[in-house]
Design goal:
mainly alpha, two-stranded antiparallel sheet, globular
Length: 134
């Protein structure tokens, strides 16, 4: 125990940006899990990984009552630029929409008893809706 009476956190399990006292916004957490292929195509599938989910939970300053629903709300909020959130770039949005429209439980919620994603996502992304030709 430290002088404050709190247990010391295991530094190997805490992301570097939390250890340094910096907190990341949801957008920053999601974008840190973005990958690009050899052909420079965005791959947003890691945004739905358990690692991303746990990193997002760790970035919250207060405990989250319903973490699965809050994660979904934050991710879709950026996807649609809802509530003045910063939208994902168009290539990221396209890749993420491809993953979210699959009718399967999101990878981050596998084994948690959550059905989020089972019906697929039917909404339009910010750029998709704004710049739709039809």
């Amino acid at each position: 125990m430290s002088a404050t009476g709190c247990h010391r956190q295991d530094r190997t399990k805490v992301p570097v940006w939390l250890r340094t006292g910096n907190t990341k916004k949801s957008y920053d957490v999601f974008m840190s899990f973005l990958r690009y292929s050899d052909t420079q195509e965005a791959d947003a599938s890691e945004m739905l990984s358990k690692d991303c989910f746990h990193a997002w939970i760790s970035s919250r300053t207060a405990p989250v009552m319903h973490p699965e629903a809050a994660f979904r709300t934050a991710l879709i909020g950026h996807l649609c630029a809802a509530d003045q959130r910063k939208p994902f770039p168009p290539d990221v949005e396209k890749s993420l929409l491809y993953e979210l429209r699959k009718e399967k439980i999101w990878n981050c919620f596998q084994g948690r008893g959550s059905g989020i994603g089972i019906r697929g996502l039917r909404i339009h992304g910010y750029h998709e809706a704004r710049f739709d030709d039809g």
